[in-house]
Design goal:
This is Aggregation factor core. The protein is mainly beta. The chain has helices at 5-17, 137-140; strands spanning 21-29, 35-41, 47-55, 64-65, 81-84, 87-89, 101-109, 114-119, 121-122, 144-149, 155-158, 164-171.
């Protein structure tokens, strides 16, 4: 018996391959003494001229950045530091102690590659799962991140209870 569906399926696969979608996966990694954010381009295309806005203010743990020995943070502090990739702070040279937002400019992220930075993140809850100086995945839940690529309208996502967010961008 001849299968008539085969040409239709093959055509659909060829057509779908012409439109590659770009996604950026963002992972928060709790670590002492420096916490880490890793942004991975999970697509098959180069992403250029990204603006990334990270907002911790709506997180379950009411998270803040602890960048100095004085101020809103608890005990251990760490300033913003690029670990991998060509990225920099968009608004100023440093993140202020107690801030809950930061903006990054990323020159590019190759397909299946990542960029990352470290900074100290503390929660501000009176009762917290791991104490104020350590942040659990559930405490970063609902924090938001948006990514703007080459001046196009930003796409946004929120972190889940495992410290991950997936920002779905337009096609490559």
């Amino acid at each position: 018996m001849f299968n008539v569906r085969l040409p239709i399926v093959a055509s659909a696969l060829i057509f779908a391959g012409q439109f590659a979608y770009a996604n950026v996966e963002v992972i928060f990694v709790e670590s002492a003494p420096k916490d880490r954010f890793v942004l991975t381009n999970t697509s098959q295309c180069l992403l250029k001229n990204l603006t990334v806005n990270l907002d911790l203010s709506s997180s379950v743990g009411k998270l803040i950045f602890d960048t100095t020995s004085t101020g809103a943070g608890v005990e251990v502090f760490q300033p913003f530091e690029v670990r991998k990739g060509n990225l920099k702070l968009a608004s100023s040279e440093k993140v202020k102690d107690g801030d809950s937002t930061l903006s990054l400019v990323i020159e590019s992220i190759a397909a299946n590659d990542s960029v990352s930075f470290t900074i100290d993140v503390d929660d501000t809850l009176t009762q917290s799962e791991l104490g104020n100086i350590r942040v659990s995945g559930s405490e970063i839940k609902n924090a938001s991140i948006d990514v703007n690529v080459q001046g196009q309208q930003a796409s946004a996502a929120t972190f889940n209870n495992k410290g991950k967010a997936l920002v779905s961008l337009s096609s490559c």
